[in-house]
Amino acid sequence: QLARAGAQVIFTAAGPRSRPANDLAAIYACPSDVRADPAQALQRARELAGPAGRILACGSFMLAGAVKSLA
Fold it and tell me: Could you tell me the pTM of the whole model?
């Protein structure tokens, strides 16, 4: 749904039990960016969103905690 709405999708892994980000990107088959860890993904999202943009982080509680600690 996000890709259809024109959102830029960034995949990352949030921990050792996470599915690899490249696998997720292949499954969802939408225009996307893959980053090695949540910090890199958040940095890229900030670059894409710009100062007035919004970022939506979707995934596990582990990912949400990682993004929250970086924000």
Answer: 0.84
